[in-house]
Amino acid sequence: MKYRSFKKRLLVKFGTIIALILFILGSVFYSLFWQNNALIVKERLFNQAEKIEEYANKKKDLRTLSYPFALYENGHERFASKNFRHPHLTQESFCMPWFPFVDAEAYLRSPVEAKNNFFIVQTFKVDEMLEHILITLLIIFLLIFIALLLMTNSIIDAILTPINQLNMDAKRVNIHNLNGTLATTKYQDEIARLRDSFNEMIQRLHSGVSRLKRTNDTIAHELKTPIAIMKSEIELAQNMERESTYYQEAMVRLTKQIVQLESIVNTLLILSRYSKQEMHQRLEMCDFNSILLNVLEELEPLAQSKGVSLDLKTFEKASKRSNKQLVHTIMKNIVENAIKYSHSNSPIAVSVSVENDTILFAVQDWGIGIAHEDIERVTERFFKVEHYDNKSFGLGLSIVKEAIELLDATIAITSQIGEGSTFIVSW
């Protein structure tokens, strides 16, 4: 696509506007000068007309008068001086040309006492003054036009310079280079707002690409294991004829792997679906009590299989604008994590309370605990303490961390090896 120069279009538009304004101003000035000069010429012709009328009344020799004139009786010329030029008569008693280059003579028609009798007085000395005025105005306004056009060009350059810089910086931004920002400008003006908008867009793109990359990494890292297990099970079942009990056990193992795959897919959807800006548009009133009860009901079978009891210690009425799905995800992952790392037949204390308009969700277990040096890392993606658990994906608490950041909440973790852990989330 061929681009047309924005600067040239602006110069043409501004040049046209400037030329039109100067033409109007020039016409006004010239009209004022012309009217002033017309008064002078008319007064001079009027004095000459009085002189001619005096000569005519006293029967003096009209040929002695030096200026051009002619006498008319009943519409016919009776006398004309040698230097008189027959003008194209109009209905006006005074006629003077607007432009001296076209017609350089002016005349005054003055009636006499007899009906249909008049005389015309001419002058050819109107061209010099008007010509000088017209040429002077043309030169002055041409210089003004050029000066204003140069100033306009300079102003357009000053406007386009930061835009061109933004354009150059924007060309360097691509899918592999989203960490940088567009260059700052000298003034905090509209260009600066445009730059900030571009930078915000780059940050949103960077955030989206980062989420997409994390999702791809998770797919590559986590899906290959259950898929490989499922493939091996199917290949073994196809190699030779086996007893029906083997196939039933194989189906159970495949079902477990499918459940794990489903869990991973749901996790990926949560991680990749939301951005912080989008989350603020999805906030709604949430009943934290109802969400917690649903979570405990979902996890009760898991707790029973592990021999763990879920004890609801504090249950104060709590509601706030938030996102139900993410609140549910936070509560479920923390409680599920507590069940996994608790000893059999040990309790887990769960509570919801309100302090100074802040909702507190707390989960305390008396399980294996977390080493002090690992507390800061347990919310990292794929972080797993191998001798604690070899079955987890290392995603649960990382999901909790991302969900908490999306909701502008905070999490505090305290733990000691062999004594258990406490997770407190504040909204």
How would you describe what is shown here?
There is one protein chain. By secondary structure, the chain is α+β, with helices and mostly antiparallel strands. Helices cover 54% and strands 17% of the residues. Strands 2-1-5-4-3 form a 5-stranded antiparallel beta sheet. A 5-stranded mixed beta sheet has the order 7-9-10-12-11, covered by helices on one side. A hairpin with a 2-residue loop joins β9 and β10. It is rod-shaped. The model has no long low-confidence stretch (mean pLDDT 77).
Order of helices and strands: HEEEEEHHHHEHEEHEEHEE
Percentage of residues in DSSP E strands: 15-25%
What is the second-level CATH architecture of the largest domain?
2-Layer Sandwich
Helix content: 40-55%
Profile the largest sheet. 5 strands, antiparallel
Assign the structural class, choosing from mainly alpha, mainly beta, alpha/beta, alpha+beta, or little secondary structure.
alpha+beta
Give unreliable regions as ranges.
none
Helix segment tally: 8
Shape: rod-shaped
